[in-house]
Amino acid sequence: MKSTKQYLDKLLPYGKIATKKWLLSQGMGRHSIDNALKSKKIKSLATGVYARVGAPISWWDVVNSLQRISEQSIHVGGLTAIELQGFAHYLTNSTTKTVHLYSEIKPPAWLWKIDCGVTFKWHGTKLLWDSESINNLKSFTLGVDVPVTIANPESAILELLMSVPKTVSFDHANEIMQGMTSLSPKKLNELLAQCKSIKVKRLFLWLAENQNYAWFKKLEVKNLDLGSGKRVIATDGKLDKKYQITIPKHL
Q1: How many angstroms separate the Cα of 191 from the Cα of each of 75, 106, 166, 218?
Q2: CB of 172 closer than 8 Å to CB of 159
Q3: pLDDT per residue as tens digits for the range 189-221
């Protein structure tokens, strides 16, 4: 029978987070968890959420732990993924770090109770990707000691465009696209073919064509389902006849 220390070393190493439900599912008994709390080997970060005593918790650790204990795919995406890969570092001037997470599932309530120096923003993906797209096309692992799954830049820019204009301005999206000089047309063709959002596809194509990148010429636009009818993106904007979206008049 494993000792409490053996369970903790395997399931809850220093710098990691785990829920009581997950620890129990992995074979650690309630008695061992209670003993670890009483002896101050672990501490409670929120109801039913634990970490080892004496180790600082970074947002990177939180995401790594969340991905480890979740049964469904969760990844760092959108603007955070773009920033981590160096595509938008010159645009970031916020004093409060926001980490954007994407998943089909709802976020755990305890996520916003963890003090790790950032604000987490959770985005549902059902309007953008199906399960197969998320599992097969979207992500790779970044980091060695604390690996996290993040969206590749081709996926991340499409995720970011889902938030235009509600929480991301049209101008900000346009500025970010100005830095996307080296995207993979092969990955983009796959992603655009599986993207479920007509708005995102049209907006991406307009922004990309506006930059006249070499990779844009390799996109299989004729094969894409771009829907029908107009899409109002910029309020009081002008209609782009080619992609049938409204854009800011100054653009």
Answers
A1: 16, 23, 23, 14
A2: no
A3: 999 999 999 999 999 999 999 998 999 999 999
